[in-house]
C-alpha cells in the first residue's frame, strides 16, 4: 500500500470480483482472446489469465498473456487502473503465470512507488523475464481527510477556483438548477452521458461490450457495498451535465463525465459539476476523491484540481528470447530505453 492508496481503500474497484466478473461477462467470449488453462495456481484472486496472438509477419507470432479484467489491444474493454494482487504474493503470481505458454505478460497501471511493484519486478527478473515499461501515466486525486472544502478552495489556483466554485451564482441565475442521483436507473444515465460524449468526442462513452460491462459492474458493486452516484445537473428540467462517481471502501472514483459544450459564456459546466461532487465528497468518510489517470480534451484539468498524485507504470514482462532481441533492436533504433527497458 501507499499513502496515495492506503490500506482502507484496498483492493480498489478494479481488483474486485465484481469488476472481473463484469469483464468476463462482457469480454470472455471475444474471438480475439483465449482463456488460459485452468491451473488452480494460476488464479489471481478471483481473476484468470487470458491471452491473444500477435502476428508480426508471416513467420513471426507472439502470445501475450494478461489477467482478466484489463483492457488490451485485442480486447479494448474499460480501462482498469491500480492493478493489485489479491491474496497472492508477487512470487506466486509470476510462478502462476509461468504455468502457461506465452511470449510476454502485460500488467497495466501499477503505482510504481509501491513495494508490490518492486516485488513483481524483482520476481520477474529472478525468473529470467525482461521487464519493460510499456506506458506511464499520472493519477490525480483530492485528499479529503484532514482537510475541508473551504481549505481546499484556498489552496487551488484562482482561475481554477473561479471555474470550480465562484461561477455557481452565475449558473443558478440562468434558470432552475437541480442535481439528482439517477441510481439505480443506469440506462437513463448512460443515455444522457453518451449524448454529451458524442457532442464532444464524436462517439459514445459506453456501447457494445463496454456498455454491458459497466452496467453489470455498477449493479454488482452496489450489492457489495459500493455507492454509485449517477449525478445529473438539470437546467429548467433539461440535463446539461453528467458525472459518474462511485464510492467504495473510503475512496470515491470519478469514472466518467460529460456535459453540454458552450452552454453559456463564462461557465465551465464540467468543472462546476466536479466542484459540487468534490464538496459532497468532503461530507463522507472517503479518504480521497480520485480523478484517476487521463487528460482532458484541451487541458490537464485534473492536475489543477488535485492535491495529490501518483505515477502509474504499465509493464510488459518478456519471456521469449526472440522477442527480447526484437525489443533490444527497437531500443537501439528508436532510442527509447528506460531504466527497465523500452517505453513502447
Basic shape? globular
Tell me about the biggest sheet?
A: 11 strands, mixed
Gap between N and C termini: 27 Å
Average residue pLDDT: 93
Unreliable runs, pLDDT <50, ≥5 residues? 39-46, 337-344
> If strands are numbered along the chain, what order do they take across the biggest sheet?
1-2-3-4-11-5-10-9-8-7-6
Q: What is the N-to-C order of secondary-structure elements (H for helix, E for strand)?
A: HEEEHEHEHHHEHHEEEHEHEH
Task: State the total count of DSSP E strands.
Answer: 11
Helix count, DSSP H or I runs of 4 or more residues: 11
Percent range of helical residues:
25-40%
Strand content: 25-35%
Overall tally of domains: 2
Summing up helix and strand content along with how strands pair, one would put the structural category as alpha+beta
Radius of gyration: 21 Å
Describe this structure as you would to a colleague:
This protein is an alpha+beta fold and 344 residues long. The chain folds into 2 domains: 7-139 and 311-334, no CATH class; 145-286, Aminopeptidase, CATH 3.40.630. It is built from 11 helices and 11 strands. Strands 1-2-3-4-11-5-10-9-8-7-6 form an 11-stranded mixed sheet, with helices on both faces. A hairpin with a 5-residue loop joins strand 2 (49-55) and strand 3. Helix 1 (17-27) runs antiparallel to helix 8 and helix 2 (90-97) crosses helix 3 (115-126). Mean pLDDT is 93; it is low at 39-46 and 337-344.
Give descriptors for this structure.
disordered C terminus; 11-stranded mixed beta sheet; 11 strands
